[in-house]
Amino acid sequence: MHKEFLMGNAAIARGAVAAGLNLVCGYPGTPSTEVLETAAKGNDGSLYVEWSVNEKAALELGAGAAYCGARAMVTMKQVGLNVASDPLMSLAYIGVKGGMVILVADDPGPISSQTEQDTRSFAAFSKLPCFDPASVQEAYDMIADAFAYSERYHTPVLFRPTTRVCHGYASITVKDEAEYLHNQPEGFVRDPAKWVIFPRLSYQAHINIEARNEELSQIFSEYPHNELLPAAERGCRKGIATQGISYTYVMEALEGKPAPAVLKIATPFPFPEQLAVKFLQNLDEVLCIEELDPVIERALIYLCGKHHLNVTIRGKLTHDVRNAGENTCASAAHDIAAFMGWALPEKEAAEIPPALPVRPPVLCAGCPHRASFYAVKQAMKGKKSVFCGDIGCYTLGNAMPLDMVDTCLCMGAGVNITQGIGKIEPDTNCFAFVGDSTFFASAITGAVNAVYNQANMTLVILDNSTTAMTGHQPHPGTGRTMMGQIVENVSIEAVLRGVGVKTVETVNPLQLQKAIDTVKRVSAEEGVKAIIFKSPCAVLIKPEQPAFIDPEKCTQCGHCIKSLGCPGIVRSEGKVAIEQALCTGCGLCEQVCPFHAISTGGAK
What is the CATH architecture assignment of 368-540? Predict the structure, then answer.
């Protein structure tokens, strides 16, 4: 054993590899992405690593590996679990042979997600065991336990770190390579009675699952990461129940104080009933501090009724703890002080940091998506149009001055929402914007639906040759895999033509007038048609010389700023200027300036 300073996601990956991981696959999504990427680093080829096209594909791939006796891990964020839920619900009944851990990183806040959904609630819904680490060290240790329980009970297991654990850093104890477990899969053994799901088999599987979860509830009461800390003062009849990173906040808030009893829940499902009942005995009140759903709170309320315990349970349901957003050290300290009757903590003036400048999220300087949105906006000026967006960098096209995202629901939804609007308002020019990675992940079926059901819409593919939002991961259109293979890239144009889209045109959006003309011409056609705006992500290319503003030609009209909102164009000392450190020399502003005052290629 030795010490290393690791990010939580890196610790999870390292712990999984040390536990004999044979395969890891997933779909990138903050805050989960670094788990798979860490596993891929230094891989000698003995571990199979894959960015799958979406979470459903990843889960099914992982299931196949686990059927063979392999230890498989599937990674995603909480909204990705929605995509994977169809196979997951059936896999809970079928079970696995090898250890299978489904890592679902939750995002309280939310910091970078559409929703704040809590995977602990999904664990109860799917009847799958769930592990909820509270620290980087615990995440490293607990991932091995998750694989062990998965194999022992032949079930997939959910592993639920949250953003502050995923992206937190700590110096932790890790195993030396000589201590790693090396799992040798047996291989797939044909057994249709086991691997083919039928209603009769599912009925018996459901009975077995309920019995297994009752057993796990008892076993988890002895699980060392579920902790019961007695009150610091004898006779204290108050307690705090908590989990995950909130446990760290609670312990920090209690430091140096006459602390009440504390119950830490690391396995929210099946709930460790015996340990919780032991905690509740001799208490009058309990405060639950958790993220996000009142999972512990509801479980304790149920146990009080079941065991006839006269204990008042407080938390989100009683509004003693806020019921949305992530917890913090400050919020935990405040809630505990109010619960215990202590003086509420006050921030000293010296602790209050100065206000930071407002920095709204924007498309990067030189981002080709800005040109794509602007081209469509100019082409559709004065026409009744709707612009349906999707999940990715290009969601930021909703910001002023572009204002080009009218809807955004979830990955791939924009293609179908566009069709729904068009069926009700046939006089509307309907556009659906989707990125290249998202197209492969979840928009292909929407394109098929549009062709089959005779929609009248323009599908706009924003192809920047990467998965930019989550850190530039490869996808089927990039021609490379996480195993380091160079493969033939999947052509978006060929896919669209293959499903029946007859008009598919590709244009560089940074050739602005050509792009505008293409939009005018293609959108005027009837039926389903597609425009592929193809230009690489600004982060992936070597910048050109920054643009230059000719002070003699510039009238200070600000049209470039008002039209594009590019962070590379600023006002300095009251005058329009180019931020040299940001400008990539893309040339879009040069084409937009009505007085030809901007030129690319640096100062003249």
Answer: 3-Layer(aba) Sandwich (3.40)
